[in-house]
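W.,

You were right to be curious about this one. When I first looked at the sequence I had no strong expectations either way, so I just let the prediction run and decided to look at it fresh. Below is the sequence, 545 residues in total, followed by the output.
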Amino acid sequence: MKIVIVGGVAAGTKVAAKLKRERPQCEVQILTKGADISYAGCGLPYYVGHVIEQRAELVVNTPEAFTALTGAQVRTGVEVTSLDRASKTVTAKDLTSGQVFTQHYDKLVIATGAHSFVPQCEGTDLENVFFLRTPDDAVALRAKVDSGEIKRAVIVGGGFIGLESAENLANMGVKVSVIDFAPHVLPELLDPEFSTYVENAMADAGVMPFTGVALEGITGNGKVEKVLTSRRPMKADAVLLAMGFRPNTEFLQDSGLEMFKGTLLVDGDMRTNDPDIYAAGDCALVTNRITGARQWSAMGSTANIAGRLAATRIAGEAGDPYPGVLGTGVAKLPGIQMARTGLTETAAKKAGYEVESVVTVTDDKAHYYPGSGSFLTKMVCEKATHRLLGIQVLGKGAVDKMADIAVTAISMKATLEDLQNCDFAYAPPFSTAIHPFAVTVDVLLNKLSGAFETFTPAEYAAGAAEGYRMIDASIQPSIPGVPYVDLTKVTGPVDGLDPQEKLLLVCSKGKRAYLLQNRLKYYGYTNTKVLEGGTLFNTEVISAK
């Protein structure tokens, strides 16, 4: 059987390697446009920042090494230009010689990936306008930074690549600004209050975010000098366009393969509407594991999973269909790290779920251990069933472990009760005796039961606490101009506080305010609310006083 794979990098090479392991007798050939068959696209920002020093470290396999390792044949520098499904052939052009040839297949895999989006505005062809999609892109950008030519850079796009690049450029001494047309950075990945926290952390780290701002053009005498935006011009020596990607499927427009916005529609076996053609990676549209709705997942992790599954199906192995993605992501950002998986509160409501959420601030490891910090966590569940739907985590520690626990739980359709007494790993350098994930589960269960009555940060920002009297419940007074109540001295009704009065209890993280609420309820106070996340998350509480 002849299998032709169009494209390499993650999905294409995974299909080829798995196929040759499963069916060594099959003839497997990769046709790829680039010179690098497989490279670490997610590592490119770290090459720019000298975290990864050598370009060779970004290249996972050379064509020669891949062929020797797997037995699959590789042709680089070859662009596939058309598909003839009736004759089961693809037409391709050798970009070095100009030779045009056709290649027959029994099974075809499309793993062509995606390319950087280029906006339709003036100046994108100027010197020092960069993209970051290939190792050569990263080499070009780093060379200019190392030369000292770039002092100020504007990054257009507040997604992972844009923000990771911002962090690395800032670490290299470049003054960086990020603009995005969306109301917030990471708009599809975090709820607005968490995006706002990230933006504040970026600013504290010296990277200035400007959201709700559109790129209108780039000007300069041969090279970048100024960025024109919908708000004001910005001086710059360089521009990095990180405005997302578009699938490399232009050559398939008249093929009859079903597509949506350029992405190929595949079933749970990674098969297109043509039974002999499969697709995987950034050019394919998979599904969301929770909602079942179509979702694009331009991630190396998804490409590898989908590529492996496609290979097993081509090899004739039956199995369960791909259950879909959760939108899991983790990133090292300017001033903070983030991880997320599942549905945000915004997305869950849009999908029709009635949800409950909670924001907690927990220690990320034993508080007395050197280097300890905090996790800021938002957990979302279905209100009626208590099924976990999603999590968002910010902090300077190992935020990925929180997300990975949630990935497992959501995939198993676990409820909060299923997770409440899990035997999580504990030792002071790694975690707390009550794991921060378990703490958040407990807090959300308390909220669902009515034992913990709160305003979320989003509700507070929207004015839900109007008419409430704020009470400082911290270990010691910390909110200027706000009455202070010492939890340890509350042994009955508190002088000056009416049991029927609306009271907003605030401390640094929310825990001590909850303990005070619990005690006040015992003494007859009926209108208390706790501000979730305390002053650590809701920084405006102190700044406004």
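Here's what jumped out at me. The first helix runs from residue 11 to 22. And, maybe more interesting for your project: The chain has four domains: 2-115+246-314, 129-243, 335-443, 454-543.

Coffee later to discuss?

I.
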